[in-house]
Amino acid sequence: xxxxxxxxxxxxxxxxxxxxxxxxxxxxxxxxxxxxxxxxxxxxxxxxxxxxxxxxxxxxxxxxxxxxxxxxxxxxxxxxxxxxxxxxxxxxxxxxxxxxxxxxxxxxxxxxxxxxxxxxxxxxxxxxxxxxxxxxxxxxxxxxxxxxxxxxxxxxxxxxxxxxxxxxxxxxxxxxxxxxxxxxxxxxxxxxxxxxxxxxxxxxxxxxxxxxxxxxxxxxxxxxxxxxxxxxxxxxxxxxxxxxxxxxxxxxxxxxxxxxxxxxxxxxxxxxxxxxxxxxxxxxxxxxxxxxxxxxxxxxxxxxxxxxxxxxxxxxxxxxxxxxxxxxxxxxxxxxxxxxxxxxxxxxxxxxxxxxxxxxxxxxxxxxxxxxxxxxxxxxxxxxxxxxxxxxxxxxxxxxxxxxxxxxxxxxxxxxxxxxxxxxxxx
Amino acid sequence: xxxxxxxxxxxxxxxxxxxxxxxxxxxxxxxxxxxxxxxxxxxxxxxxxxxxxxxxxxxxxxxxxxxxxxxxxxxxxxxxxxxxxxxxxxxxxxxxxxxxxxxxxxxxxxxxxxxxxxxxxxxxxxxxxxxxxxxxxxxxxxxxxxxxxxxxxxxxxxxxxxxxxxxxxxxxxxxxxxxxxxxxxxxxxxxxxxxxxxxxxxxxxxxxxxxxxxxxxxxxxxxxxxxxxxxxxxxxxxxxxxxxxxxxxxxxxxxxxxxxxxxxxxxxxxxxxxxxxxxxxxxxxxxxxxxxxxxxxxxxxxxxxxxxxxxxxxxxxxxxxxxxxxxxxxxxxxxxxxxxxxxxxxxxxxxxxxxxxxxxxxxxxxxxxxxxxxxxxxxxxxxxxxxxxxxxxxxxxxxxxxxxxxxxxxxxxxxxxxxxxxxxxxxxxxxxxxxxxxxxxxxxxxxxxxxxxxxxxxxxxxxxxxxxxxxxxxxxxxxxxxxxxxxxxxxxxxxxxxxxxxxxxxxxxxxxxxxxxx
Lengths: 427, 518
Description:
The complex is a heterodimer. Chain A is α/β, with parallel strands linked by helices. Chain A contains 17 helices and 14 strands. Chain A has helices spanning 34-40, 52-62, 79-83, 85-102, 115-119, 124-135, 155-164, 187-200, 233-241, 254-268, 273-298, 312-323, 337-345, 359-369, 378-386, 395-399, 408-424; strands at 18-21, 44-50, 72-76, 108-113, 140-145, 178-182, 205-208, 223-227, 245-246, 302-305, 326-332, 352-356, 373-376, 391-393. Chain B is 46% helix and 13% strand. Chain B has a 5-stranded parallel sheet with strand order 12-11-10-13-14, with helices on both faces. A 4-stranded parallel sheet of chain B has the order 3-2-4-5, with helices on both faces. The longest helix of chain B is centred in the C-terminal third of the chain and has 18 residues, at 482-499. Mean pLDDT of chain B is 89; it is low at 441-463. Classes of the chains: A alpha/beta, B alpha/beta.
């Protein structure tokens, strides 16, 4: 590591001192989550209230994924919308009417705040109330902020899911206990988990979000939830405030993480230990087999995580413990201590954790560390490749199915592929 | 507010980035919130640039807003200077920073930096990407051009020209520049400076030494060329050399201003397009209906090539940048085509659907639209995608550019021979209606076979008239290739309605065909 850098004081004893940085951040804002959230919630439409930049971001992040007509759009603010908020509200009402007339199949509409709408203090919560009353009961109108001044990349999903929590039907003490898996997962992964819970004998399991906003699970004092994603701090808090309890666990990446994650539920519901072990054994064996191919390629190789999605720490734990990779720096945009306790405890003691970013200083550290693999955003990947450093696009880790036993091999392969390619090319 | 799903242009600061990234030793300090860095990936991913764009984002957050975002800006300015040591710095605000009114121009002036600083005022809520690029380039030229440098004595040297307008992320700019530079060199003309692409602050300083300017991309170069004319009296060549005819016009215009003989170049420089287009195989191109949409300059140029050099029928012509609406309207009139000035891609989609065309020449947006309709498409203009940065040399300008255009526009069409085969072997398993056009690849079904084909081949009339189809006529309609069937059906029904025919017989179909024969 670069010796001249000031190291901030540690605020915990479970890992090496955390390096906290402020400066230019090479990350997406929370609006980007719309790209996967609109695929997951198939009755929802996302309307960003923002600028041309917001629209351009969504289109650039979506890349080639131009579907017939996507279930997201931007209400682009213009000069006259800035002149007076009354007019901006009228304009927004007009746009929403126009949109709902055009897309009658929409059942839920998210008004998504952006940097400009936050700065001019356009109150989207009020707008959602006003428009909700007007379009009820056909359309439910919700709101959250995906603005860059408040959210980093995956925090947009956190804000979106937190906005759904008040909409969840209330359950009482007398209702049957239920378990909620929190975090949007690819359908195939969600189905795998549901089958596993059923095999274990845990029934009444739901997801947040479900594939339709109209199918939100109930919540009450008998509700327990497991976070499937590490970036859901606000959602977890909102669920707790409605009486649900979080089952603390490692995140379900790799054999170790997935086992521990399921174990937390099994313990809560008093599942017999032998039954648990026997049920999981074939899945664990399959995952080990799939990962074995990649282990030879990854063991001993060094990896540097630039901050991106908050998936960094659990993934670093997986790569270090199950594939033998050597961690140099593990950057995260935000370190949620209480959700990360168990993960941090499993990282080697000498790993540099960094929170926040000053991209130029961090790139200096990448160059000095010369890692075998750098996990970074799309804006940095080719520039680093052209310096001779192999990279893995962080965004692929958010878009690809990587959770659970049956994806452990794929997850390892995502990191092995750039190295394999470097070895193969003779050009 | 404007409801927008996909946009043709980004915000104006992205235009400024296209200029800064194209140049050497220029750094852009952008006052902006976290997230605006997404724009970096346009350059590193789409264009595969091996360097980060020379942009520093101040990255303010909500918690900074009540405090001192201007302090953040000044710190970022100092860090940028120390780390990147640029020859000149552009400073400006993105859409959000514009709202917090920190006045980057004033802040930077107070700092008294030791390098030239160019403040940019790019109103995000009024203007767009192309305008931002043009304004940025103009401000750079105004600030950095050395007003004392003038063209030297002409007798002692070859004529000198500046090439203006190419930027990063431009459609084929890299190869256009190489092609036109070669062409001018052959004519005995030297290039003084090409800018913004590849130029430095020192290059901009010596713009005044050229005898004249050539504006290859008016969308980004016009403002600077106007300024150079005012300041240095340099005339500007404004013919855009896309296609054989336009390249010949360009040569004549350049030769006149540079006082050289155009004839050798005109004689030598005939593109293969001329013969390829006259060759017998190209007969089937005659009257192919095309829809053209792009930036104003590329759309107008494409219309001329399509109409005069390939013998297509231009049925729709439009642009997304209103600044060039006048040129597009004039050209549309020339080709008797419907003009369309809009940045709403849904309006473009509707126009393409209504026009019943066989080929779309457009941007990446139209490529997606055409793909959905199962129509061939070639890209002629930005917005660009990774495919528009081919590894091979593929200009659109000059004589080689005309060759490239011939290949790129003709290949997406169902080839002439194939079209005959389609008719002759209609019931053959490989040529049946559901097989789709072979250029779309195996497994690509004919478009709309579930929905539109059903509409078009059943007896239900497409319009509200009472016309019905006889069984004979309906069977015959099915034999018409799918890509013209919709039009045939509509024409026949319109014809029947006009003639007061209530049942369309076999004869009605052929009478309508004769009526609408082109």
